[in-house]
Amino acid sequence: MSAFLLMFFTSVTAFAQEVANNGVSPAVMNDQRYNRAIHIMAMLLIGFGFLMVFVRKYGRSALTATFLLVSTSIPIYIYAKSIGFMGGVSEEVEKLILAEFGAASLLIAAGAVLGRLKMPQYILLGLLFVPFYMFNEWVVLGGGLGLIPAKTVIDTGGSIVIHAFGAIFGLGVALTMTTKQEFEKTIEADATSDRYSMLGSMMLWIFWPSFCAALVTPEQMPHTVVNVIIALCGSTIATYLFSVSLRKKISIADIANAALAGGVAIGSTCADASHTVAMIIGILAGGLSTFGFAVIQSRQQKWMKLIDTCGVTNLHGLPGLMGGLAALPIIHGLNMQSQLSGIGLTIVIAFVAGLITGKILPLMGRRTEAYDDAEEFIDAE
Amino acid sequence: MSAFLLMFFTSVTAFAQEVANNGVSPAVMNDQRYNRAIHIMAMLLIGFGFLMVFVRKYGRSALTATFLLVSTSIPIYIYAKSIGFMGGVSEEVEKLILAEFGAASLLIAAGAVLGRLKMPQYILLGLLFVPFYMFNEWVVLGGGLGLIPAKTVIDTGGSIVIHAFGAIFGLGVALTMTTKQEFEKTIEADATSDRYSMLGSMMLWIFWPSFCAALVTPEQMPHTVVNVIIALCGSTIATYLFSVSLRKKISIADIANAALAGGVAIGSTCADASHTVAMIIGILAGGLSTFGFAVIQSRQQKWMKLIDTCGVTNLHGLPGLMGGLAALPIIHGLNMQSQLSGIGLTIVIAFVAGLITGKILPLMGRRTEAYDDAEEFIDAE
Amino acid sequence: MSAFLLMFFTSVTAFAQEVANNGVSPAVMNDQRYNRAIHIMAMLLIGFGFLMVFVRKYGRSALTATFLLVSTSIPIYIYAKSIGFMGGVSEEVEKLILAEFGAASLLIAAGAVLGRLKMPQYILLGLLFVPFYMFNEWVVLGGGLGLIPAKTVIDTGGSIVIHAFGAIFGLGVALTMTTKQEFEKTIEADATSDRYSMLGSMMLWIFWPSFCAALVTPEQMPHTVVNVIIALCGSTIATYLFSVSLRKKISIADIANAALAGGVAIGSTCADASHTVAMIIGILAGGLSTFGFAVIQSRQQKWMKLIDTCGVTNLHGLPGLMGGLAALPIIHGLNMQSQLSGIGLTIVIAFVAGLITGKILPLMGRRTEAYDDAEEFIDAE
């Protein structure tokens, strides 16, 4: 009888925890997050990787670089968090997801200089990027250095600390990592590489809800994922409309890229916005991003004197900042000062960190020929 | 003590619910369905999208059209269900899955006229399709108009209301949307586009169990998913055998398409058939579908005076109807009259709706050149 | 009141079971495993399938063969386990996962002779392979014949019974299935087929944690999956370093293949090794595998007088054996004799079974032209 009583009390206590957590036990929660973690890994490797295969002669390099960037950054991030660097995390799956967020931001940064680094330089980029990224994450979200109170910046799906940070870091690096010769070289695509690019794009689109909902509560999940999908639908349709309006014919590169801008921009407010607002954010982000690819990109090259190979400014930079700012009117009870400081600090930290990284990378030399597998790969035609 | 008692009663009550639901709390159920929803999204974009890339010069258009069809139909369906149109649904993830089912049916319909619509016509197709689809779903499954008692038609995985509906709707549209000039134009494929097509096919094959089991109970899930996989194995082997028998050599288009017929045909009975019956359904469906591609398709063109670009008649139409009829001998206690009325009504509603849609689409004009990216895309060779 | 008491006792008993199982009810456990099963299916079809598309003119055949091998072996395995052959399994999803493990091993075996079998010979290979595989699994892990006590060989993710077994079986088959003419024929790749190959590789990489953690307890899952990812990161970086060191330039085939060796080699100890040890195993496996592709493979052809088309010796054979042996120093309280006997028996059974199979296959004749779709497919260029 007393054994039954013990079993009974243990059960009631454990179950009360579950009820408090909406019926989800810790082990089940871990498994739910694990599925998100795998979805995000699909985004990192096939999503980002194949999206970057649009450069016709640089496909092998883009995919290998993706492999190396992910394989460098994830173990470092996990190890750092395990020893409590910039705020420790104990739970394994949560740590993995945070590491994947870092890898996503790194891949965005690398997209800005894609084709102009040698393979070991991608690895070095990963080594330098992770501590800067962790520092920014800690300062903006974790209350690091006491600049912004912890958890007062709203950025559930990372519009600010993942997308904008990665893009601006990449621009900082690109300032140094663009040579005169590279300004004159066209980046070519063909039908085969375009379709690979669409594969990457669709892979990102499909799993984006898991990216944004990876760490929300079970209660918030349904609303969050539907918001993300609605925002992506909005940006996809807007991209088509803007692409055909601005260019007369559709650019498949616009479709592959700007269709994703809704996912970037809904990141900060995905758990909180209404579906209607999510649709509006998606449409605005798709329009802004397409305008970026069609109009801004060529002027940016002259004005900033850099080449942003994948146009991360237009896909992650502008929509990311827009998403962070969108929280101001949308979130009730938002600490406005925190949100603005978070955005401002991210811009500064990312750009300075990128500049520093851009000064270090050339110490390993420069490529002879940009955007070409043949320099580093056997049998590349 | 009284706090403990309260906690205790709350816990017991909540847990009794879980036990009744096989140990699955509502929040956990939602998460399980969410994973299915993502799997289905992979089928919609990469599955259907890349399966349609087999048209050599029309790959960019096929993928962009897929993006637009999904992005148009899903928000409309979700919004309509939210306001209670044709039977409301309150739970977010369930609504998302139902919207994805509609998008799948729409992509099937679009497959019939692929290459012969302009991009804005695909969007219009989506706008027109969704209300018709919801009407049929409501009448056949939801007891709408009082024609068929609700829940008496067995169609768990949508053989009837998703596959057959989409295919027959598509044929209705194709009747108008095939010009004389288009009859004379060959639809070309090459090795690259064929391998993309196999990627789409495999993506559909892999996630098909999640499509059919998306809304079954946790108790039914294991039997259902194994049934779907067995049916797909059956149709895959049958497709190879029939393809090589009917054509002397294997057609990769048969493999990419007809291998999936087992998934289509097991749809109605996937939760109820035995594994042996699932294998038989799979083999018959694979054989029927391959026969359709190898023998019927060319005759259908002359007889029905239309071109079915992707052969949706053979992959979704015939196997879908077969699957719906298979319930008659298989399901114990089936309401035969309901099942037959459901199939009959679906055929009529789909065809009439398709015809109407086919009359409206040409108001936006017609393509100059079918099956060619160059008309609408920049830089298409 | 008595109804409440009944509800109460049922609830407490059922929940006590869950608590014992870390808060995971049987129905929830099934669903978790189902998600793993789908991940593994993605590895089998797109992963293994597209990895083998690197043979330029044999893409359609490689993908069709993958379809047929999976569709033949899975239903047979499920049926055999259902009737209690070599140790029955009653739970449906568990049976499905075990069947997929068998299919993975079969695809590895087929990789050794890829391009030198006719399509019906792949089916026959599947029919012959499954019983041998089940016999080895039963003897090594299940206590079959009383040779090794059940559950004393540590092989959580199948380094021994899946990877090494499949590779050695394949070598046994290849001994007969390599003709003189085939020794002189180069296996060609090009940029398009290479990128498909990377798609397959990445698909395997992404879902590998689900392969290894498919049947571990919920408690072991987080540590296991992070171990697998760390090992894969280690082998990916090591592959790059060894490839560029051994060959002067990077071989994309090394990257696509050897990057996965960490997943193969961590298989036995994934639930038990520390993260640091997982990284070391990954690095060693990546190095060993790259050395295999760069140095051993061409010598093996002369020495063993066989062609191993996909280099399964280097990706699955050597890293698989290394993984099995790694358990010796790593696992506390390991039954060393069992582990060594398990490895030894697997080598013997696999090789003899492969030899027998290799004698039976040629009874169906031989291909005229190796590595070429045109012999069996319509419209192949």
What's the SSE blueprint?
The structure is a homotrimer of 381-residue chains.
Chain A: H1 2-20, H2 26-51, H3 59-82, H4 92-113, H5 119-140, H6 159-176, H7 180-183, H8 191-212, H9 221-247, H10 252-258, H11 261-265, H12 275-304, H13 312-330, H14 336-360
Most extensive interface: A-B, 52 and 56 residues
Multimeric state: homotrimer
**Into which percentage range does the β-strand content of chain A fall?**
under 5%
Q: Look up the CATH topology of chain A.
A: Ammonium transporter fold
**What best-fitting shape of chain A do the alpha-carbon axes yield?**
globular
Q: Helix amount of chain A, in percent? A: over 70%
Number of helices of chain A: 14
Quote the average pLDDT of chain A: 94
Helix-strand category of chain A: mainly alpha
SSE order of chain A, one letter for each helix or strand: HHHHHHHHHHHHHH
Let me know the largest β-sheet of chain A: none
CA-to-CA gap between the ends of chain A? 78 Å
Q: Return the domain count of chain A.
A: 1
> How many beta-strand runs of chain A?
0
- Unreliable stretches of chain A: none
- Name of the CATH first level of chain A: Mainly Alpha
What can you tell me about this protein's structure?
3 copies of one chain form a homotrimer. By secondary structure, the first copy, chain A, is mainly alpha-helical. Chain A has one domain (28-363): Ammonium transporter fold (Orthogonal Bundle). Chain A has 14 helices and no strands. The first copy, chain A, has helices at 2-20, 26-51, 59-82, 92-113, 119-140, 159-176, 180-183, 191-212, 221-247, 252-258, 261-265, 275-304, 312-330, 336-360. Chains in contact: A-B, A-C, B-C. At the A-B interface, helix 1, helix 2, helix 8 and helix 9 of A face helix 1, helix 2, helix 3, helix 4 and helix 8 of B.
